[in-house]
Amino acid sequence: MPSPLPKVFFFRPTFRLSAQMQHRLCENGQFHPDLHQTMSILRSAFIALSHHQPLRHFSERSALGRRLSSRFVAGMEIEDALRAAQSLQNQGTSSTLDSLGENVGTPDQARRSADIYHRLLDAVAGRKINATISVKLTQIGMDLSRDLAAEIVSGLVDHAVAVDNFVRIDMEGSPYTQATIDLTRTLHAKPENRGHVGVVVQAYLYRSAEDIAALTAEGIRIRLCKGAYQEPPALAFPQKSDVDANYVRLAEKLLTSGIYHGIATHDPNMIDAAKRFAREKFIDKSSFEFQMLYGIRRDLQRSLVAEGYNVRIYTPFGSEWYPYFMRRLAERPANVLFLARNLLKR
């Protein structure tokens, strides 16, 4: 007998977007001011649901869940990710491949996660695909032992050096920020690793300006994003307008650093600000890249490529997609309407 649906599925919505309000929800995800409160509530709800284990268990094993996630997740297997990366390359973009998973419970799970990345590095080199890898430290044992995570990620960077590739150490919630930056700096300090390992910085954290100053002083490549975790006001800007302003300030620091960085955003305002600043400072388009997420704003991805900018697509895959999927909905609640429309069409 099939397992019953988690109780979380059986709820009555407390509000409904009217047709007029949906119309005012712009295609690029920018909301009319009177919708900001609703979107804030949605963001908090999706962040909370990202930790809901019964719903995760059901979703990752159901055909409906896989169907919903397929817009943002390239597939379940390594071959799915490689096919997606090749297709993206044919369209003029590069990729960063991410085997989804986090907070593993045993050293064996951590090593199995690492094995997927080693296989990716070999496959990408063999097929000459323009793709790097992105790894979360909790996926390779950080919660179990920092020494274990350091050993595993060091092996991945060694492999990336051998095949002339690059490892992006992803950023998670604020409890991991300092450890992630420290480990990245330690790895990059080895002369043979320079240019083969980088990190992510989140613009919503107050500390990020200081982190960028320290990292760029050592020549470390950065992916700048806004941030997708629920952080307290003591650590992060609570208002979107403040996050946006900080993002622009940090992007300008990266663009003038002389290091090849990734400006990761789907926000047209942030993209326009970066393009405008680069033009004013005579910064060549080839000296940085825009980064976007698989399945989001494909129209914007294509337009940037047509304008001659480098574009890299963060391409996740794997069966443990649920937390990632919920954070994408939290980042951009407009995706909920998109998914609902497309689900009804099928």
Can you offer a commentary on this structure?
With about 350 residues, this protein is α/β, with parallel strands linked by helices. The chain has helices at about 20-25, 35-50, 55-60, 65-70, 80-90, 105-125, 145-160, 175-190, 210-215, 240-255, 270-280, 300-305, 320-330, 335-345; strands at about 95-100, 130-135, 165-170, 195-200, 220-225, 260-265, 290-295, 310-315. It has an 8-stranded parallel β-barrel, surrounded by 7 helices.
Summarize the structure.
This protein is of the alpha/beta class. The chain has 14 helices and 8 strands.
Summarize model confidence as the mean pLDDT. 84
Shape summary: globular
Identify low-pLDDT runs: 1-31, 342-346
**SSE order, as H and E?**
HHHHHEHEHEHEHEHEHEHEHH
Q: Which terms would index this structure?
A:
346 residues; alpha/beta; TIM Barrel; 8-stranded parallel beta barrel; 14 helices; 12% strand; globular; disordered N terminus; disordered C terminus
SSE layout:
Elements: H1 19-23, H2 36-49, H3 53-61, H4 63-69, H5 78-90, E1 94-99, H6 107-127, E2 131-135, H7 146-162, E3 167-169, H8 177-188, E4 197-202, H9 208-217, E5 221-225, H10 240-255, E6 261-264, H11 268-280, E7 288-293, H12 298-306, E8 310-317, H13 322-331, H14 334-345
